[in-house]
Amino acid sequence: MENAYDGDNLIYYDLIVYDGGKFTVWRLQPTSTDQVELLKNLQLNDVKLDFWKSPSEAGKEVHVMVSDEKGPKFLEELDDHSITHSIMIDDVQKVIVEQKEKRDKLRKQVRLHDWREQKVQFNLAQYHSFADVINYLNSLAITYPELVSVQPIGTTHEGRQIPLIKITNKRNGGTKRGIWVDGGIHAREWVSPSTVLYFIHQLVTQYDKDAQIRQFVDQLEWYIVPLLNPDGYEYSRSSNDPEIRLWRKNRSPPKCIQQATGLFQPPTTTCCQGVDLNRNFDWFFGQVGSSTDPCSEIYQGAYAFSEPETAAVRDFVQRHRISTFLTFHSYSQILMYPFGHQVRTYSNDLNDLRSTALSAAQALNSVYNTQYKVGTGADTLYPASGGSEDWAKGKAHVKYSFLFELRPEEQVWDGFLLAENQIIPTARETWEAVKVIAAKTLELPSNAHRAPQKRFLDS
Fold first, then answer.
1. Where is the active site (predicted)?
2. How far apart are CA 229 and CA 181, in angstroms?
3. What is the pTM of this model?
């Protein structure tokens, strides 16, 4: 059957019950450039510190998960440099366990079907396994064959196929512009794939009910990958161990490095798994905001597109007529446009990108009054090279390229551990922003695709 595939996994993770030390998330308030630089050095040089929100500039919060073992030395370092800090999450594992117990309790009740009572049973208000996602996509392809087809675009290190769902009215021929959407590139950001699944639901099940959605499906081709990093995602679901639940990277094979231990002492060998996929794209690869240490959360990989997940994106986007590229992350409530590798660096169509992003953020805000910042990643967060949205704009020459950092905002305590009752509100409001961008895509002139984008520095 061309519209479905099995997505069979070669590696499965048994649920691991964690019974180790305590992890705490600290909220830091650097107030000087020197304090920010200290934290940046800690992030690059101490792989045992898990930065949920990275240091960027004085006055912006930093969130760090620290084990009890590392805690005293870390706090001493903060005190020595007068960095204000407070507890954001006292016991990360306790929160993980409580959330899992709540989810399990709901699943033991009467099985909920699709929340809009459509033909395909699927509860959009829950976090799902990769297998559940595959089954949902296949069910849509079988139930709505005139609109939906499903295909793998690559295979991960652990043998999982990366699923893409194409949504368009197949009866309407001719050349159509494409919109790429991906979620779950970072394993721990569970609300991202859940939000993207909501978009799929809207496009398919509301086609006969909503004139604007019908236009989107008739005149555009949607290429949607709800889980770009299925290996990392399934690994993050496999344990209540905070270091596993908060796993960020893919699950590439271990890479070993030798580290000096002191004069006249033999070096030690350390082996670690995983590449940060959003540092692995060919856009100023390895220049800023990434690491060559395979044990780092922001390990960039051996070379650009070294990973099957990023190579799959590159190959697919380059083979198709993609006018818009949307990638979804969490957290911080920011809507970003290129370029993120250097502050005050933009494409020559900055005004169009910024006005579109501002309109999208305004539409998002109209639902629940959620506030989003708008700007480049470098201007709003911190410079980082090798990102997918920058590559899409700078190398693949996609017209509209945006990265969403979804809920929660930085002042909210739960960070990556967003409760399930936040899925639908997050998805609903974000869908309004996506509709604005889709409408702009429809307005593009026929020669807008693949126009080379120059960069300039705004001094």
1. 405 (proton donor/acceptor)
2. 14
3. 0.90
